[in-house]
Amino acid sequence: MYRLVASVAVLSLAACGAPPAEPEAPARPPEPASAPAAPGPPVSAANKLTAQGYGPLRIGMTRAEVEAAMGPDADPEAVGGPDPASCDMFRPARAPEGLLVMVEDGVLTSVWLSRNTAVETDRALNVGDTAAEVKRVYGAAAEVMPHKYGEAPSEYITVWSTSDHKSAAARGLTYEIGPDGRVESIAGGGPSIQYVEGCA
What we know:
alpha+beta
């Protein structure tokens, strides 16, 4: 019995003189799996499609000004219209995918958007939104026309920001609705937003 008590006392004294044991570091959580790459930087608030243009592109600019702002034609071999000298559609080199400009007689008359769900209008509408949402956002200002080639629900929804709809000073947005009832393309600018076959 004496030997057991002595052993316990020795162990206790040794333990008292020993520095406290380092607490074990908590196990590191496993590194999270890398997230898939983002599709690209978000579009800045300034770069929205409006009746006045898109970002630095303003309706009424000359072609030279368009190219200075966003670069020359990204695909100069593509035919942008039957008579490019009078009307041409092209994507400037620094413009987002799916964004085209229409230049008539050397002047920017409209900006067109398709195949891009990241760029939105000043009313936060995008390619892919429903016709019902477009009509809800604009209310009574939305003018609906039947689609030239498709049956309902295909249609055009146009909203003018000026009372003048025909002169070069007219400004508006047209949403082309496809057979699934969703926005297929959006055009912002002057009367050319009502063209249904590009430069026609």
